[in-house]
Design goal:
Helices cover 29% and strands 25% of the residues. The chain is an alpha+beta fold and 737 residues long.
Length: 737
């Protein structure tokens, strides 16, 4: 990064080492922060260690401020970190020609025939994610751009957490910005990359010290035999940005005790007939929201000329709760959820037999719109739940629905799943795609193949995963849980077949899932600061908020496949964010977020964000996602936990828990020290009962293993290095007294 003096201060450009020499790959005289009111160019530059200290000022009558900053290389990478603090009494912005402020780098002039060869062979990963051609989300603040003429790979990452000046009075973050590439035509074709501003939200830059923070890197990369594809570029961008995130250590929402406590509270709240259940002449049923209340959906449907009926039955509320409850009751016979388990199961069996339930109704005789992802997801959950329950009649109905509707529909749409399909014709209807349904569908097919031994289902899984891996990267996303389930499907298919294609797909789907993660905390107002968003997930492309169900499901699929990674440290940190931050969804931890609630342990659907649905009102307490409280318990403290809560004990058997026998139990875990210093702690094992015998195997990343006999009332001391991890296997022999 080279600064050169000019008439109004220092401009900069980027150079790359190419063999033994250096070559310039951007225009000269770039500014750090652009816009009529900014045009930040250092007036002073001094060396400081491996980096630079920079400073400047503006003395216009209506725009007076000073600024200072640093440019620091990130050790062991090609990243530079730039941070600038502007100190002012506030000033007007964006009133004239420019939408401002903007952080961009001009690449200079474009080559001849730039709308042909250059367009064809550049590689661009732009963000945030989008769906249906517009309506960006607010997730991954980064870009990757490869220029085959410059033979340069550029990356930029924008550290949104300290940039609290964004909002309705300036630019409302991703309502007005994108991390992208832009062609310009000012006399001749040129281009720029960066945090590009498209729409001004307001004209008042706030007083005080306001921070701009971002990273930039550039590397030489040949274009032979061909430029990189977008899938590889996305994986490399995600992997290179993960080390830039802050440590997960330290933060806990107020009143966040343990997931065991919150699961117990959730179990009690789900039994509330008054608030969680409804009934009609056919019997009782579980609701989708507490008291059927969703102000946002009521307001939305009214605007569309429709009525929101919040008191309807919600089959998935029961399905998504019963599966983890089954695991808990199997592992801990006589546990506290037997009553809930029975009630959920009774509702499911009754509901699938009612005329209003179309999940197992077969081919329709009249046009019948169905949501593709909801249909496939619910059908898959029913197969997983009832595949080993001994109900042959219900299992036969599920299998018939799969064979006569789901599989033919997938083939009819060539595995390019639509947002909706017609259950009569099995064809796409209405607008929009949902290609990521391939992930859920493939997961179902892999499980069918494993249980039935029929190879046709493996072929279905292959076709679905291959289709999803090859659609354009910006078309592959919809609900985050669908792409997360694709990770698991690809990993299982690789385990079953040994075919390397599916392991490559797993890596790509992991990158797409992490692309939908929130890589920052929203600090733009006191309201949004009630939660830490880092490590949560954009629930659905362009919906602009994280939701509890989607967060935990994404975490569970990442955990289930983490052992396939060469180094799981980065994913462990992501999962540690989830272990902590998801407590914020509960009224117990966030009583002021939406006011008093009837139930403390049913999560809110969302936590507030700048771009979220603030104008629509309260989304509700999601009964449909409450079952993922039990999944969080299974992930983080059902079977083992550390006395030092800064050490995460993660179960990596998520969704792969086999039936527990009456005599043995086995589990695999990863331990993670979130601190930057060594730690000693003690691991306790609720899964080892008082008369049981436990054998614990600890294995370091280098492969050194030690075995330890642990009784039910004992703990195991462990040591972990700074940000260190280890694997732990637990085998239990049950002894009855």
């Amino acid at each position: 990064m080279v600064f050169t003096p000019g008439e109004n201060g220092y401009g900069f450009h980027l150079e790359l080492r190419d063999g033994e020499g250096w070559r310039r790959v951007t225009r000269t005289d770039n500014v750090l922060v652009s816009g009529d009111s900014f045009d930040l160019r250092p007036a002073e530059i001094t060396a400081s260690g491996a980096g630079l200290v920079i400073a400047g000022s503006r003395t216009d009558a209506d725009r007076k401020y000073t600024w200072q900053g640093t440019v620091m290389p990130v050790p062991g990478t090609s990243w530079f970190h730039l941070q600038i603090t502007v100190d002012s009494d506030g000033f007007r912005i964006g009133e004239h020609r420019s939408v401002e402020p903007e952080i961009s780098v001009s690449l200079g002039g474009l080559p001849p025939y730039e709308r042909g060869d250059h367009v064809w062979f550049k590689t661009l990963v732009q963000n945030p994610t989008q769906w249906n051609g517009e309506g960006r989300g607010n997730d991954f603040p980064a870009l990757s751009y490869y220029d085959p003429y410059l033979q340069a790979q550029f990356r930029m990452f924008f550290d949104m957490t300290p940039m609290s000046w964004m909002g309705k009075d300036t630019i409302a973050r991703f309502y007005g910005y994108s991390c992208s590439f832009r062609r310009l035509y000012d006399g001749e074709p040129s281009a720029e990359i960066g945090l590009l501003a498209h729409a001004q939200s307001g004209h008042d830059f706030p007083a005080g010290q306001q921070v701009f923070s971002w990273y930039i890197s550039a590397d030489h990369l040949d274009d032979e035999p061909t430029p990189p594809d977008e899938q590889d570029a996305l994986q490399q961008l995600v992997d290179s940005c993960l080390p830039l995130l802050r440590s997960s250590t330290g933060y806990w929402p107020e009143h966040a005790t343990s997931w065991a406590d919150f699961a117990a509270g959730c179990g009690a709240d789900l039994m509330s007939t008054e608030h969680s259940w409804g009934s009609d002449e056919s019997g009782e049923y579980l609701l989708s929201y507490v008291d059927g209340r969703s102000d946002a959906w009521e307001k939305t449907m009214e605007a569309r000329g429709r009525e929101h009926v919040g008191s309807e039955p919600c089959l998935e509320s029961a399905l998504w709760a019963l599966r983890p409850v089954d695991v808990l009751q199997s592992a801990f016979p006589g546990g506290p959820y037997a009553g809930l388990q029975t009630r959920l199961e009774n509702f499911i069996r009754q509901e699938v037999g009612r005329d209003r339930c179309q999940v197992l109704s077969g081919l329709a005789t009249t046009p019948t719109p169905m949501g593709s992802w909801q249909y496939v997801y619910i059908l898959a959950e029913m197969w997983f739940l009832y595949g080993g329950r001994g109900d042959d009649a219900l299992l036969a109905r599920i299998r018939q629905e799969i064979d006569t509707v789901a599989v033919p529909m997938a083939r009819e749409v060539q595995y390019l799943f639509p947002l909706q399909f017609d259950k009569q014709s099995l064809r796409k209807i209405g607008p929009g795609s949902a290609y990521a349904v391939c992930g859920t569908y493939a997961l179902l097919m892999v499980d069918l193949a494993g249980r039935t031994g029929e190879g046709q289902y493996l072929d279905e899984a292959r076709r679905a995963i291959r289709a999803l891996a090859n659609v354009p990267i910006d078309a592959a996303l919809q609900e985050v849980v669908l792409i997360a389930q694709a990770i698991d499907a690809a990993d299982r298919l690789h385990a079953l077949t040994g075919e390397p294609e599916w392991d490559e797909a797993r890596k790509y789907f992991r990158a797409q899932t992490l692309r939908m993660m929130y890589w920052y905390d929203d600090t733009t107002s006191p309201r949004v600061q009630q939660a830490s968003h880092l490590g949560m997930f954009l629930a659905c492309a362009n919906i602009n908020y994280p939701a509890f169900f989607e967060n935990i499901e994404a975490d569970a699929r990442l955990a289930a496949t983490i052992l396939a990674e060469d180094d799981p440290a980065a994913t462990l940190q992501v999962l540690d964010y989830g272990r902590r931050n998801n407590f914020s969804f509960f009224p117990r931890c966030s009583p002021d977020m939406y006011g008093p609630m009837p139930l403390d342990f049913i999560p809110f659907e969302d936590v507030p964000m700048l771009e979220g649905p603030n104008d629509a009102g309260f989304l509700g307490q999601e009964i449909y996602g409450a079952g993922f409280t039990f999944r969080a318990h299974l992930l983080w403290d059902a079977f083992a936990s550390a006395s030092d809560r800064e050490v995460m004990v993660l179960s990596v058997d998520s969704y792969r828990e086999g039936p527990t026998s009456t005599t043995t139990w086995q589990g695999t875990f990863l331990l993670f020290n979130s601190r930057s210093e060594p730690v000693e702690t003690a691991i306790s094992f609720p899964i080892i009962g008082g008369s049981d015998e436990g054998l614990v195997t600890l294995t370091s990343p280098g492969g050194k293993a030690s075995k330890h006999a642990v009784a039910g009332d004992q703990t195991l001391p462990v040591k972990l290095g700074p940000r260190g991890w280890a694997s732990m296997g637990v085998a239990v022999v049950r002894r009855t007294v």
